[in-house]
Design goal:
Elements: E1 5-16, E2 39-40, E3 46-68, E4 74-79, E5 88-94, E6 106-126
Antiparallel strand pairs: 1-6, 2-6, 3-4, 3-5, 3-6
């Protein structure tokens, strides 16, 4: 089993809004700067995504993992559907081993919030 390495972590208690962008959140990278152009994930074979929703001011929040195609367009690889406050979910994406879940070279984590804000934590770890 390979060593796990942090790709992106959204700390517990982070408040997001419908206009918040995960690409502006600081990830665990050598320069500790926002991933403004996506998450560099090409070095990994598997990505594990863990999400916890503490509260939602509104109706619902859903999460997505997208990969950037060679044409520069973002393609959705996985979506969670609505997650209720107090709930957590987790999913795993395979790299080169599974064409149906190929997470690409550059990825992004995003959400759709129906409401004003949500309190979440999330992480994407690669190995």
């Amino acid at each position: 089993m390979g060593m796990r390495s942090g790709v992106l972590k959204i700390p517990v208690g982070t408040v997001v809004t419908a206009s918040s962008s995960s690409l502006a959140l600081v990830g665990n990278n050598p320069m500790d700067v926002p991933y403004e152009n996506g998450l560099p994930v090409e070095a990994f074979d598997v990505l594990s995504v863990d999400i916890s929703v503490a509260a939602v001011a509104g109706t619902s929040i859903s999460f997505f993992y997208d990969r950037q195609g060679m044409d520069g367009v973002w393609y959705t690889v996985y979506s969670t559907g609505p997650i209720a406050p107090g709930a957590a979910t987790s999913f795993t994406l395979a790299g080169q081993n599974s064409a149906s879940q190929e997470f690409g070279f550059i990825g992004r984590f995003r959400w759709t919030l129906i409401g004003t804000s949500a309190t979440i934590s999330a992480s994407i770890t690669g190995k």
